[in-house]
TrEMBL record:
The keyword Membrane does not apply. Its EC number is 2.1.1.56. Responsible for methylating the 5'-cap structure of mRNAs. GO terms for cellular component: nucleus. Residues 1-25, 65-91 are annotated as: Disordered. It holds the Pfam family mRNA_G-N7_MeTrfase. Residues 186-472 form the MRNA cap 0 methyltransferase domain. This is mRNA cap guanine-N(7) methyltransferase.
Length: 472
């Protein structure tokens, strides 16, 4: 017999002790009109009954009132009933066969047996449900609390990466993805727009020619790009506008990679090019150990690494592995473009600090750099801590000594094409027929030529340089 919650409540109520357990009791009607207007009460009423507690009398007006019904109980449609003089026919004219049936709990697609709902849970079941998480909750938890996954034994990404790499991963994994509106409200939105404009200049000047010569093509698109340190996919739109055919995004932060893939999936032009994503540390892993042979079957025309290769210069070994991963899978004639902090500029600020100062830090309201030591021998491992408002939260980085970088890159068949500080990129292209209107569209400045950056943001932009190499 289907489970009837009203019957269950009646039989288990303290007010029904001593009641008969006949089928008539078990099938007591549960429809509101019948409960309120039954001519005779089918249940004997002991002295402790609920009806007596509320002073129920046989002459109660409810007994003689018209039944309360729902529109679905009336055989006449709702539209027709609105025009009739009486919404329902009098109760006396309704035959017992037409009276509403009890509303019984009778699901059509049961997961549990019919009798299980009234069966108490065992102690084992109680313990299980204390910590039970359904599929829907588990999916929500995965999307909202991705950092918690880092503490599990299956994927201890931060703990596997020693020292500075772990700190970098933890920082970028913890940064939330915000919507377009919130990004526009960033206190350094002018600087962010300017940095994006510089990257667009690099892509247009050096990536577009390499993509045009590509043999990797579809019906409408051409070219294959490797985005090392893709982050949350901020450059996917730029590559979409470049009409590439294949994109491979890799980053050390797993959460960022997931968000980059979501951005690609929701990009309105995503269907125009194929994309592959993976969590990947270019300092310690080879590219072929992460991506399948199908992804690497055809060489890349462009490798882009924005604001991240300086993490590789903690040791010569990691710097070489980074350059090997750039060059190994890029075709001859391909282009390597990127942006890094300007070591010469940072060292100049360090030398300007008074000799007696113990605090080896400098900056302004937007950025701050703190060195661990004033002097350092060699080209690798000169560490400093970097803070950039609404972007980088005091993360360890390494100086990239430029001449050493160029000579090291030459060993991997990478020939220097371009190197300029961001200020000079602006000076060189501010009147360019393509890049000047682009500055307005990207909100670097307005139509009157007024910059969206204040002096602090402009100073922060000066610590970066843009570069391009070509593979021989």
């Amino acid at each position: 017999m289907p489970f009837d919650p009203v019957r269950d409540a009646v039989l288990n109520s303290p007010a029904t002790e001593g009641l008969p357990t006949s089928p008539s009791v078990a099938r007591r009607a549960t429809h509101l009109s019948v409960l309120l207007n039954s001519d005779s009460d089918p249940l004997p009423r002991p002295s402790s009954s609920l009806s007596q507690n509320i002073n129920f009398e046989p002459t109660d007006k409810l007994v003689f009132s018209e039944p309360l019904k729902r529109a679905s109980d009336n055989p006449v449609s709702l539209s027709k009933s609105r025009t009739s003089t009486s919404f329902f026919p009098p109760a006396s004219t309704v035959s017992p066969a037409m009276r509403p049936l009890p509303l019984l709990y009778n699901p059509t697609h049961r997961i549990t047996p019919p009798g299980s709902l009234s069966t108490p849970m065992s102690k084992a079941e109680m313990e299980m449900y204390k910590s039970y998480v359904g599929k829907g909750t588990a999916r929500l938890a995965k999307r909202k609390r991705l950092r918690d996954d880092l503490d599990t034994a299956d994927e201890p990404l931060v703990k596997k990466l020693a020292g500075n790499s772990g700190a970098v991963v933890e920082h970028y994994n913890s940064r939330p993805e915000v919507g377009v509106i919130q990004r526009l409200e960033s206190p350094i939105i002018g600087l962010k727009n300017f940095n994006n404009w510089v990257k667009s200049v690099l892509i247009s000047k050096f990536a577009h020619p390499a993509l045009a010569e590509s043999t990797v093509r579809t019906q409408r698109n051409k070219g294959k790009v490797l985005d090392l340190g893709c982050g949350k996919g901020g450059d996917i739109t730029k590559w979409s506008k470049a009409k590439i055919s294949d994109y491979v995004g890799a980053d050390i932060a797993a959460v960022s990679v997931e968000q980059a893939q979501e951005r690609w999936e929701f990009n309105r032009n995503a269907s125009r090019f194929q994309a592959s994503f993976a969590t990947y540390d270019f300092c310690t892993q080879n590219l072929e150990d992460v991506f399948t042979p199908d992804v690497l079957a055809k060489p890349f025309d462009v490798v882009s690494s924005q604001f991240c290769i300086h993490y590789a210069f903690g040791k010569e070994e990691t710097a070489r592995r980074m350059l090997r991963n750039v060059s190994r899978w890029m075709r001859p004639g391909g282009t390597f473009i990127g942006t890094i902090p300007n070591a010469e500029q940072l060292l100049e600020h360090l030398r300007e600090l008074p000799p007696e100062t113990q605090d080896l830090s400098f900056g302004n309201a937007v950025y701050r750099v703190r060195f661990e030591s004033r002097e350092h021998s060699g080209f690798f491992g000169h560490k400093y801590w970097f803070f950039l408002q609404d972007a980088v939260e005091d993360v360890p980085e390494y100086l990239v000594h430029w001449d050493n970088f160029v000579s090291l890159a030459a060993e991997y068949d990478l020939q220097l094409l371009y190197k300029e500080e961001f200020h000079y990129v602006f000076s060189e292209h501010q009147e360019h027929p393509e890049f000047k209107p682009l500055m307005v569209r990207m909100r670097v400045m307005d139509v009157n030529g007024e910059s969206s950056m204040d002096e602090h943001q402009w100073e922060a932009a000066n610590i970066y340089i843009a570069f391009a190499f070509r593979k021989r």
